What we know:
The structure is a homodimer of 114-residue chains. The first copy, chain A, has helices at residues 7-13, 16-27, 32-37, 43-55, 78-106, and strands at 30-31, 59-64, 67-72. With 114 residues, chain A is α+β, with helices and mostly antiparallel strands.
Amino acid sequence: MFEDESDDAFRALAEPRRRAILRLVATDELAAGEIAAAFDVTRTAISQHLTVLREAGLVSERRAGTRRLYRARPEGLAGLREFLDSMWSDALDVGRRLVEAEAAEQAEHRTDVA
Amino acid sequence: MFEDESDDAFRALAEPRRRAILRLVATDELAAGEIAAAFDVTRTAISQHLTVLREAGLVSERRAGTRRLYRARPEGLAGLREFLDSMWSDALDVGRRLVEAEAAEQAEHRTDVA
DNA sequence: TTGTTGTGTCAGTTGACGCTAACGTTAGCG
DNA sequence: CGCTAACGTTAGCGTCAACTGACACAACAA
């Protein structure tokens, strides 16, 4: 369901530096050079990271003269949120089911299962 | 804030097969062999994936005789959810702010900014 | 046009990761 | 004890990914 379309996003977020870049452009639209200045690696590395983020749909690119401005694209995180929320609720449901089963087994005469 | 503690989880989820394993044990507690039987790779590979997932706090391991039963651990996804929700709301706030600014610039005499 | 600024792109290297095959380990049965 | 079943662990291999340095390109000013 949300596997093929968010596969690139998962791989993109696996890199800590890309997550840092993403947080950097979450609130402000920054140029590639401004982003690169915030890290201790080459501008080349940042440019490649930005390409990965863009192809994963996590950032948008806008050209203004010779500069390229980047901004976080929240829609790109939709698939991730679906996966996490699905996992979260499923696992929690199982937890509740187990608690209920345990309570029912240890005391079939009571009804404090909430 | 939630960087060092969820770094392993991000890397673990970057692998599609590990996400498949996680979904497999989200609702049912399965043994390593049962999990391995669901894929076309060696049990060794699955065992290594399970080690990665366990060290990332995404699954719990319970021994029963010679078997080892695994189950998804929803708490392991907490850091991820925090990151995603933070990114999501921040980026959306900026989006609303931009819409408001644009509306205010194009029509300073109206008040339909919601 | 020439020069400068802001960025992307292309080799090439290094380190990490996923996989397999062989071996080691623990639990249970006879 | 010997034997088997169910796993984990190690060594080695192939591949991918992140990084650097050199080069190419577009936009703008003089």
